[in-house]
Amino acid sequence: MNTKKETTARSGQPQAPSHEQLWSCLQRYLVFDSPDNRWDKLVNLLLKQFKSDKLKPKDFLEAPLSEQEKIFCQRFGPNNEQSLKQSRIFNLFLALRDFRTYEPAAFDTWYLSLPPEYSSEIVNEDDAGFLNQIVQRMELTSSQQAWLEHSWRACPNWSCLSMNGPWDKDPLAVFAGRALRVCSEMPDSLTADDFMKCCTTLDQLLTKSRAKLPASFQPEMVILVEGPTEAILLPHFAQLDRFDFTASGILVIPCGGTNQLERRYLILRDICRIPVLLVLDNDAEEKINTIKDILRPHDRLFVWRTGEIEDTFEINFLVKLLNSYLQTLASGGLISGQDFLPEERRTFALDRIWKNRALGKFDKVGFAEFIKASCQTATEIPDEIRSLTQAIKELKSKTT
Predict the structure, then answer these.
(1) Residue 256 region by backbone torsions, left for phi larger than 0, else alpha for psi between -120 and 50, else beta
(2) Distance between CA 363 and CA 15 in Å, rounded?
(3) pLDDT above 70 (res 371)
């Protein structure tokens, strides 16, 4: 171990965080993110808060993980034994959920990014025995074991959620507060059996709370779409079709185009256990064929037959919506179906119509929000969107 680096790392004495800073830290644990990205972002958050010149970012980043964890806990960790107990149990529960969500390769990536002086030091022998019981029971890989121990040591102060703060009424904080009350009932001398029973109770609590929680927390399925229009409209029309994305733990991620969607999928394919559904426009045949070749058996690809999501609307209904939308923009004169040329993509036609009216570029997001507010019955769901919702339901049913 590099003693100089270790001593330097210990010398940093960061001040106690504000509630806003602590909430920013806790939120990193409550969003869909790979283990290596999560720890990197927590480290960056920590380094931004240092007020002492005694600790340099380079020294911290090169210090052994055990030293980084100690400084992290000085900054964001529990301040008494009761808080430490609750927070550690909840943090371990989140670690076990990570094992369900991510492939072992995801933890290998995090493990290999650590400084070479990685230390698996445990706080005391009792802790080591308890954690080893879990490792043996779950047959964890070495990198998963390291993540479990890391989650035990680098533990934020979850018990702060019992106080007033920027987390007030946030559904994630409400869930975490209820979970901590369950954790507080665990005996001081924990066994693997105690912990697994606690996790079962917390899983049940998560299931009951699912409909009130954002899908970005512990998702059970991911849908990759090209742009924000799909991210706005798909959950809304599914809701009209009596299928709640949030309650089903379905996370929709807009990627910003076909190439970005493919790159995002390649990352998720290698690190995620949960199923992924990709939704593509039909104008990129070569890219579609490439993605078909790399799909995992439990993933799916859906391509709009008509072009893009805007092309799925029946033309008269679309024109009606557009004319209502134009009224909100105080633009006089109605448009008709004849303004849309045969074989022309709707988005190209809308850009042309908006330009001719001196309205600038057509606002796809603004119009999507207008459609969401205007369409409130199942009869208004385009047939192709209904078909996509059915495909999502079928994929989800195969993984539950």
Answers:
(1) left
(2) 46
(3) yes
Residue 19 CB: number of other CB atoms within 10 A?
A: 14
237's CB contacts (< 8 A; 6+ apart) are 375, 381, 382, 385, 386, 389
- Give the HSE-up count for residue 389: Cα atoms under 13 Å, Cβ half-sphere: 20
- Do the bridges between strand 276-280 and strand 221-225 make them parallel or antiparallel, or are there none, so unpaired? parallel
C-alpha 140/C-alpha 135 separation (Å) is 5
Strand, coil or helix: 327: helix
Which sign, positive or negative, has the C-alpha torsion 355, 357, 358, 359? negative
Closest to 351 in 3D by CA, of 308, 385, 381, 383: 308
- The whole-angstrom separation of Cα 241 and Cα 233 is 12
CA 297/CA 275 separation, integer angstroms? 9
Give the dihedral sign, CA 165/171/177/183: negative
Distance CA 71, CA 73 (A): 5
- Mean predicted confidence (pLDDT) in 222-243: 96
Global pTM?
0.89
Rounded to whole angstroms, what are the CA distances from 9 to 36, 54, 293, 344? 21, 9, 48, 62
Question: Please, where are the H alpha helices in 302-382?
Answer: 315-328, 346-356, 364-374
Predicted confidence band of residue 53 (pLDDT cuts 50, 70, 90): low
